[in-house]
């Protein structure tokens, strides 16, 4: 976590990111009023703010708050004050569904940042669609959320026109990992494990398909139940499998103990995962067993770009107690996307929000294009980000360290 207040370079980032006070003032005006009269527009945030994944969600929420505060400070939309309304889904689809109902029921809410979990997102999408409320996720990566259940067969279908995301999908992330492990590291035998959840199972499937396409061998597969404490059963299978590494589809609360127990059992091979394990807690939970492990993350490292460095400095200056984490930059860009969309709608309507503001904001999100914290922010016909940059990271000296960034090149 870093701190300072550097102005961001691009106009959209400078104007829509600059913030001053406020994410809790949702009652300061009517969302259907005249912008010049001091309208409050609420941006919702949904994520697992408590529970095992809270480290990821709190940083993302703070980053969204930073975008709101910056927009207010710079008066990005004349006459409009933005506020953030944050709800905790606990990583549970049922709770996420309740939150979606609460957010759509608040007429001041014109967009939502989140959720972080693909399974939670699936439970919320229809509610947001029926309310014409735009949602921009900084983290969900399951391809089916935007491209339909048959996307892998080439039959892509966009069922939810209100759903967007600033993070690229597992249709790219899994294959990118396979490309690096097989072609660059020359590892040809893998044991694949997943946690049976939408994110983990989906990521493992896309990795497996590409790894085998490149000539790699999946020596065995297994699944765990999230929340397990003893992984001796799967570790015994890995030990005798001849695998050169383990690919894990899931998140850090299980991946950390799994790799720690694996190394403690004398199986000195790396565990590799996706962005769901890219957190300092993975290293801590591994108890010294994470060194040499790999993960992929969406986008290039924030410190590689001027806008990313400025975001990190501004986040530090805001003195949030928690680091922005793996999804902070994407949450900031998600909130900025909604701010830019509101700006476009107000400008097109004579400085006022129209009666059908939600539908208009959704349409405006589809056309958004700006240079954000994580790179170029824009969306394709399915609502997916057009930025398909990814990074391979490795645990070195007790922390995740970027190794290389690039894009996936189909075989």
From TrEMBL:
State the organism's lineage: Bacteria, Bacillati, Actinomycetota, Actinomycetes, Kitasatosporales
Where is each Leucine-binding protein domain found?
40-398
Q: Which residues form the signal peptide?
A: 1-30
What is the similarity comment for this entry?
Belongs to the leucine-binding protein family.
A Pfam family name for this chain? Peripla_BP_6
User: In its UniProt entry, what is this protein called?
Assistant: Branched-chain amino acid ABC transporter substrate-binding protein
- Which CDD domains does the protein's record reference? PBP1_ABC_LIVBP-like (cd06342)
Biological source species: Streptomyces cremeus
Q: Which UniProt keywords apply?
A: Signal
């Amino acid at each position: 976590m870093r701190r300072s207040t550097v102005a961001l370079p691009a106009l959209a980032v400078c104007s829509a990111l600059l913030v001053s006070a406020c994410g809790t003032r949702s009652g300061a005006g009517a969302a259907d009023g005249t912008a010049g009269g001091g309208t409050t527009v609420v941006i919702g945030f949904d994520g697992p703010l408590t529970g095992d994944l809270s480290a990821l969600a709190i940083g993302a929420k703070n980053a969204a708050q930073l975008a709101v505060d910056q927009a207010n400070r710079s008066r990005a939309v004349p006459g409009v004050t933005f506020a953030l309304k944050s709800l905790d889904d606990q990583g549970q689809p049922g709770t996420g569904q309740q939150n979606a109902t609460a957010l759509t029921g608040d007429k001041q809410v014109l967009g939502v940042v989140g959720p972080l979990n693909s399974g939670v997102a699936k439970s919320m999408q229809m509610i947001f669609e029926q309310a014409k409320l735009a949602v921009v996720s900084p983290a969900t990566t399951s391809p089916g959320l935007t491209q339909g259940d048959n996307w892998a067969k080439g039959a892509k279908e966009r069922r939810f026109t209100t759903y967007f995301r600033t993070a690229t999908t597992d249709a790219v992330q899994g294959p990118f990992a396979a490309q690096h492990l097989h072609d660059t590291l020359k590892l040809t035998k893998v044991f694949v494990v997943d946690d049976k959840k939408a994110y983990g199972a989906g990521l493992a499937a896309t990795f497996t398909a590409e790894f085998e396409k490149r000539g790699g061998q999946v020596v065995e597969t297994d699944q765990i139940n999230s929340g397990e404490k003893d992984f001796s059963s799967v570790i015994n299978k890995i030990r005798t499998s001849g695998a050169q590494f383990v690919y894990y589809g899931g998140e850090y609360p299980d991946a950390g103990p799994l790799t720690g127990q694996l190394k403690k059992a004398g199986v000195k091979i790396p565990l590799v995962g996706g962005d769901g394990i890219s957190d300092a807690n993975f290293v801590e939970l591994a108890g010294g067993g994470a060194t040499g492990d790999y993960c992929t993350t969406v986008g290039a490292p924030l410190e590689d770009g001027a806008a990313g460095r400025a975001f990190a400095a501004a986040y530090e200056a805001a003195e949030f107690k928690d680091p922005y984490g793996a999804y902070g930059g994407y949450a900031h860009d998600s909130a900025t996307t909604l701010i830019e969309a509101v700006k476009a709608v107000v400008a097109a309507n004579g400085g006022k929000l129209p009666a059908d503001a939600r539908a208009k904001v959704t349409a405006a999100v589809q056309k958004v294009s700006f240079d954000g914290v994580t790179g170029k922010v824009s969306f394709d016909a399915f609502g997916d980000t057009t930025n398909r940059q990814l990074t391979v990271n490795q645990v070195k000296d007790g922390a995740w360290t970027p190794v290389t960034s690039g894009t996936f090149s189909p075989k």
